[in-house]
Specification:
Blueprint lengths: L2 H5 L3 H12 L2 H17 L10 H15 L14 H9 L6 H11 L4 H8 L3 H16 L5 E5 L3 H13 L3 E6 L2 H11 L3 E5 L8 H9 L6 E5 L15 E4 L4 H14 L8
Parallel strand pairs: 1-2, 1-3, 3-4, 4-5
Keywords: Phosphoprotein
Organism: Pacificimonas flava
Protein name: Response regulator
Length: 266
C-alpha cells in the first residue's frame, strides 16, 4: 500500500484539528498543505516507527512548531473581525496546553501518543491538559444557542454548556426557529447539528444567521468527512457524533479563545 493511500483516510480529521488549533479554515489548511508538501518532497523522512495517522500528525506538528508557514492574511473587505483576531493570535501560536487538550479530547490520542506528537512525556501531557482545563474555567462566559432536533442530545449539550458556566438562551429544532432565536437573543456562540427536525439544514440556518451578525459556530455531525472535502468553504470547528463531553468542552473553549466565525459551506 502506498503512503498516499495510507494517510488519505486521516486527512479530513487532520484538517479538522488544524482548524481548531489555528481558529481559521484558511490558516489550518495552509499548515496541512505545508505538511503534505513536506511528505511529498521527502517521503523517506515520514516516521516509520508508528502508524500512518501518528506519522501524519507528527509531520504536521513539526511544521506547526517551526512556525514557518506563510498564512494568507484575512481580506479586510470579506473577513470578519473574529477571523482577523484568529490570524493575529497565530503570531503567539496556540499554547502548548491547548494543543495537548485538542489532541486528547478532540482527536482521541492517548497521553502517550499526544506526547509523541508534541515531544513531551505522558506526565507532561497530563499536566498540560490540566493547565488547559484550568484556563477554560477562567474563560469569560457567554450565551449559547443550540440548534439540535434530538431532545436527548440537546439536553446533553445543554448540560455541558452550563457546566462550563455559559447560559443556553434557546434550543431550536428547525432552521426557522434557529434564525428567529438568534435574531432575538444575539448569542455569543452557536452549536449546530446538520440535519434538523423538518428536514431543514443546520448549515442553512447558520448561513442565514451569519448574514445578520458575526458569531462563532461549532457544527456537530455524524459525518464530518462530508464537510471536509476541500471542495468548498467549510466549518472551522467541527465535532463528530457520538461525542465525548470533553470534546465539546475543548471545542467550545477553542472557539471562544479565538472568537472565530466558522466558514459555512455554500
Amino acid at each position: 500500500m502506498s503512503l498516499a493511500t495510507e494517510i488519505a483516510p486521516h486527512l479530513p480529521y487532520l484538517r479538522r484539528y488544524a482548524r481548531a488549533l489555528t481558529g481559521s479554515q484558511t490558516a489550518g489548511d495552509a499548515y496541512v498543505r505545508a505538511a503534505l508538501e513536506a511528505i511529498v518532497e521527502e517521503p523517506e523522512s515520514f516516521p516509520k516507527d508508528v502508524d500512518a495517522r501518528m506519522g501524519l500528525y507528527r509531520v504536521f506538528h513539526a511544521i506547526w512548531q517551526s512556525a514557518s508557514v506563510d498564512v494568507p492574511a484575512p481580506d479586510p473587505e470579506t473577513s470578519s473581525e473574529f477571523e482577523k483576531i484568529a490570524h493575529e493570535r497565530l503570531a503567539s501560536i496556540t499554547p502548548l496546553s491547548r494543543q495537548a487538550l485538542l489532541l486528547t479530547a478532540m482527536e482521541g490520542f492517548s497521553n502517550e501518543d499526544a506526547g509523541y506528537l508534541i515531544q513531551k512525556d505522558a506526565g507532561e501531557v497530563t499536566s498540560l491538559v490540566k493547565e488547559a482545563l484550568s484556563e477554560i474555567e477562567k474563560q469569560t462566559t457567554t450565551s449559547v444557542l443550540i440548534i439540535e432536533d434530538e431532545p436527548i442530545i440537546a439536553m446533553d449539550i445543554e448540560s455541558i454548556v452550563t457546566d462550563l458556566g455559559h447560559e443556553v438562551t434557546s434550543i431550536a429544532v428547525t432552521r426557522d426557529e434557529a434564525v428567529a432565536a438568534a435574531e432575538e437573543q444575539k448569542p455569543g456562540l452557536i452549536l449546530a447539528d446538520i440535519q434538523l427536525a423538518d428536514d431543514s439544514s443546520g448549515i442553512d440556518a447558520v448561513k442565514d444567521i451569519l448574514e445578520k451578525f458575526a458569531v462563532p459556530v461549532i457544527f456537530i455531525t455524524a459525518f464530518p468527512e462530508r464537510l471536509l472535502t476541500g471542495e468548498r468553504p467549510e466549518p472551522t470547528f467541527l465535532i463528530t457524533k457520538p461525542f465525548q463531553r470533553s470534546t465539546v468542552k475543548a471545542a467550545i473553549a477553542q472557539a471562544l479563545f479565538f472568537k472565530s466565525t466558522a466558514a459555512v459551506p455554500a
